[in-house]
Design goal:
By secondary structure, the chain is an alpha/beta fold. It is 19% helix and 37% strand. It has three domains: 187 residues, 3-Layer(bba) Sandwich (FAD/NAD(P)-binding domain), CATH 3.50.50.60; 133 residues, FAD/NAD(P)-binding domain (3-Layer(bba) Sandwich), CATH 3.50.50.60; 89 residues, no CATH class. α1 links the parallel β1 and β2. It binds flavin-adenine dinucleotide (FAD).
Length: 411
């Protein structure tokens, strides 16, 4: 079988990419390993999705449904319960091998869109010692149990991590009847959006403990208690500060890591700052014909931006593979990262969408984008928080595109 574009992953990024690639005239195959489309949105029953795009507060399934309905209008072929196991270069593009209900299949395509989302960091990833008992879950696994399978993961819960996912799960488990003993955070400031601190914790009297982490778990077959320790500025546990908290469930909301096994296999260079691929303004990676979008590219805070990058990848993956002239985009120390990390000056540079995060909480900042020694864009911010991703649109049209730098400095 031959397709112009193969999209791997049927979450919001992959759905948007497949729709746009098809609308741009490409024959498209969308491969999804689960039984239903929608990705992580299927289990996000809270509202707050789509505020930027639709001006409405939708639940995750409602947001996904709008794109699934759109997809049905196109000629995109969808292969569910299909897991991509191998990808390699072929004469005219790429060869994608996947396992599905019919066995092992291989298809050829001109371009590939990687929309594989994120993985969650696990107990091993953060070195929590102790017994190997039941009752320790990642936030996504706990969310799947409650919201999709209708099973409570525990009755007395400790949540580790105050990012949005941890906050949302603390509220969700409380609403379903669990007692949340507290949300514990190793940093000295909460990681989640301010609105979520209020709506998920304060409104439900759930305590938030800062500069603390879980250092050990205890339980014979089921979790019985966790050991909590204070941490220093480097987030190392401080000996002698240990305290025990009784619980039968530990929810780990300790970070997402872009899922890039396939990118690695295809020798796509990854940015150590984002853990996703280096891309140009069209979401094309350093490998011609391979595109990355959504959470596989970098961890987004809002699904609206996930869909936006999916659409960009989709439109451009449908076109022919053209010769690019890539110029690097450099950042200064106060920025955690900027995406895209390169500009293809052979392509349209007049409306370049850039996403960035600050490396720490900063007030009164000025962002400057310069090229060829000239300032081409500035914006001031009263406050910048690392959990909140920022989006700007820059016109590089008349600028010399050598020496592109994005800088944050005090206002
Ligand atoms: C608990 C939680 C709460 C959130 N709350 C909000 C919110 O309030 N507002 C908001 O805007 N956003 C929120 N988000 C973020 C939003 O859900 C994500 O940004 C978005 O779902 C990411 O989309 P994606 O398509 O990149 O990845 P995903 O949704 O993760 O989709 C990736 C898809 O790729 C598939 N896949 C992966 N590897 C393979 C493979 N090898 N073969 C085949 N298929 C594969 C997966 O099965 C999955 O379906 C929340 C996220 C979580 C987890």
């Amino acid at each position: 079988m031959k397709y112009d574009t193969v999209v791997i992953g049927g979450g919001p990024a992959g759905l948007a990419a497949a729709i746009k690639a098809s609308d741009s005239g490409a024959s498209v195959l969308l491969i999804e390993r689960e039984a239903r489309l929608g990705g992580i949105l299927k289990q996000c029953v809270h509202d707050g999705f789509g505020v930027v795009r639709f001006g409405e507060k939708l639940s995750g399934p409602e947001y996904a449904d709008r794109f699934i309905k759109e997809l049905k209008r196109t000629n995109v072929q969808v292969s569910l319960l299909s897991f991509v196991t191998r990808t390699q270069k072929s004469q005219n593009g790429y060869e994608i091998t996947y396992v599905c209900r019919d066995g092992v299949k291989t298809v050829d395509c001109r371009s590939v869109v990687l929309a594989t989302g994120c993985r969650e960091r696990t107990r091993n990833g953060i070195c929590v010692h102790g017994d190997r008992c039941a009752g320790v879950y990642t936030a996504g696994a706990a969310q799947n149990l409650v919201n999709v399978l209708g099973v409570m993961p525990g009755k007395r819960v400790v949540v580790l991590g105050s990012g949005d996912i941890g906050l949302i799960m603390a509220r969700r488990l409380t609403l379903e009847g669990a007692k949340v003993a507290g949300v514990y955070e190793a940093k000295s400031v909460p990681s989640g959006l301010t609105r979520n601190i209020h709506q998920c914790l304060k409104d439900f009297d759930i305590p938030l403990y800062l500069s603390k982490t879980v250092t050990r778990v205890f339980g014979t077959s089921r979790l019985e208690r966790v050991e909590i320790s204070d941490v220093d500025e480097k987030m190392h546990p401080i000996a002698g500060t240990e305290q025990l908290v009784d619980c039968d469930c530990l929810v780990l909301a300790v970070g997402l890591i872009p899922e890039n096994e396939i990118a690695r296999e295809m020798s796509v260079p990854l940015d150590p700052k984002t853990k996703g691929a280096y891309v140009d303004q069209n979401c094309q990676t350093k490998e011609d014909g391979i595109y990355a979008c959504g959470n596989a590219l970098h961890v987004n805070d809002l699904v609206d931006y996930v869909s936006e990058s999916g659409e960009t990848a989709g439109v451009h993956s449908a076109g022919p593979v053209c010769k690019r002239d890539l110029k690097p985009i450099k950042t200064d120390g106060k920025l955690l990262y900027v995406v895209p990390q390169m500009l293809d000056v052979n392509s349209d540079v007049s409306k370049v969408v850039m996403y960035f995060r600050a490396s720490e909480e900063l007030s009164a900042q000025k962002l400057t984008v310069s090229a060829g020694g000239q300032t081409i864009f500035t914006k001031t911010y009263n406050k910048l928080l690392p959990p909140e991703m920022e989006r700007i649109v820059v016109d590089f049209g008349k600028a010399t595109t050598d020496g592109i730098t994005v800088r944050l400095e005090d206002k």
